[in-house]
Amino acid sequence: MNNTGKLLISGFACLSTLPAFAIDHHKYVQESKVISAPLKTVWQAVKAQKTNDPEHRRVISTNGTVSVVEEKFSHIPVLGTVTCQYSQAEIAGNKLEYKMISSDKFVAFEGEWELKQLADGQTSVTLSSFVDSGLKLPFADKITQSNTKRSVTARLSEIEQWV
């Protein structure tokens, strides 16, 4: 094999490994909590979040099991207040997925709530969330992840209190 052939093969081999490093994998924040209530009760509390804080959240439209929600997030580091519209889809009575439609500052906002009935009558609730603030500052992703973790923890605690 001549040098050109070897160079082409080496180039293709390098390119085939590139996607593993080039793809931006979302860094989801995920937390779970066991709540002493049946799945149906916890599910109702999770769904009610979209309407239980009218100062910060409102439903813009609903079509079956899909809603469009507008939410204002206050005290976001560097950004201040952020407005975000997202779709929220209920799936099989135990999963709620959300994904950003538009925002005045966020680049991405998505995640899911997943509920599992436990054998002892309790419910495991897992909230996974990804936020991209769009900030191009040193450590911006770590600040965003830290803020998202606080929000995830607070939301799970709210659900437990409402139930």
Q: Rounded to an integer, what's the Rg over CA atoms?
A: 20 Å
Low-confidence stretches: 3-24
| CA(first)-CA(last) distance | 71 Å
Please give the share of residues in helix: 25-40%
Number of helices: 3
**Global morphology:** globular
Strand content: 35-45%
Averaged pLDDT: 86
SS-derived structural category: alpha+beta
Q: Strand arrangement, largest sheet?
A: 1-7-6-5-4-3-2
Taken in chain order, the helices and strands follow as HEHEEEEEEH
Total strands: 7
**Sheet bearing the most strands, described?**
7 strands, antiparallel
Summarize the structure.
This protein is α+β, with helices and mostly antiparallel strands. The chain has helices at about 5-20, 40-50, 140-160, and strands at about 30-35, 55-65, 65-75, 80-90, 95-105, 110-115, 125-130.
Question: Could you explain the architecture of this structure?
Answer:
With 163 residues, the chain is of the alpha+beta class. Helices cover 33% and strands 40% of the residues. It contains three helices and seven strands. A seven-stranded antiparallel β-sheet has the order 1-7-6-5-4-3-2, covered by helices on one side. A hairpin with a 3-residue loop joins strand 3 and strand 4. It is globular, with a radius of gyration of 20 Å. Mean pLDDT is 86; it is low at 3-24.
